[in-house]
UniProtKB/TrEMBL annotation:
GO molecular function list: adenylosuccinate synthase activity; GTP binding; magnesium ion binding
Lineage: Eukaryota, Metazoa, Ecdysozoa, Arthropoda, Hexapoda
Pathway linked to the protein: Purine metabolism; AMP biosynthesis via de novo pathway; AMP from IMP: step 1/2
Subcellular location: Cytoplasm
Name the UniProt record assigns to this protein: Adenylosuccinate synthetase
Family named by the database record: Belongs to the adenylosuccinate synthetase family.
Binding site residues for GTP: R150, K176, M177, D178
Keyword GTP-binding: yes
Positions bound to substrate: V144, T145, T146, K147, R148, V149, R150
Record's cofactor remark: Binds 1 Mg(2+) ion per subunit.
Amino acid sequence: MSVGTEYRYVMEAEKGKNSLGTTKKGIGPTYSSKATRNGLRIGDLLGDSAMFEEKFRTLAANYKRMFPTLEVDIDAELARYREYAEKIRPMVRDTVSYLHKAIGEGKKVLVEGANAAMLDIDFENRFVKETGRLLQERGHEVGVTTKRVRRCGWLDLVVVRYTAMVNGYTSLCLTKMDILDTLKEIKIGVAYKLNGKKIEYFPSSMAELSSVELNTSAWDKAGNPSSAQMRLNVVSAPAT
């Protein structure tokens, strides 16, 4: 919703240099509204229009109280969403029963997400200087929405191991391996150290995570363009 987008713009602007650098598409306010139980759902949009309007006006008023400079044309917004409601109505289903019915019929279900695990965490294993620029340029690492150059880092197996425990995946697809061919050395993160000691868990706080030291294993490629044959057993190399 535009009110969420405008809210994010104002909120990011007030943070100044501490801004998160979000896409400003209203995703954060949507999650926030869900947590505080004052958000609007598809069921509200397609249900009683008077109730939807009341909830929308209340939500907009809450944002306005927090940020007085926020400007929202509520009537125009409501008119726009009445049109949206009729367009999407034929496509809306209860996904739980719909998917369980499909699974019961032996059909395969593909679940795809837009964001990766741990995307909201600011890791400290990013490339620096020439190596980072090489990956950004050869890998075309530019945000689709923001057009900002993405921050890139070595493959972090600590994160891979943790996300495997959380998400339960059984296989992993490594992409863009060919863009590493020009590097003489490739590093892979294999362990975290905190206060000089190796830790066996993934830090749950930003304060602790920002203090960890990433131990890496180095694979000396000597410029040999054979990255397609790379195997994960390279982590047996001495940690640096």
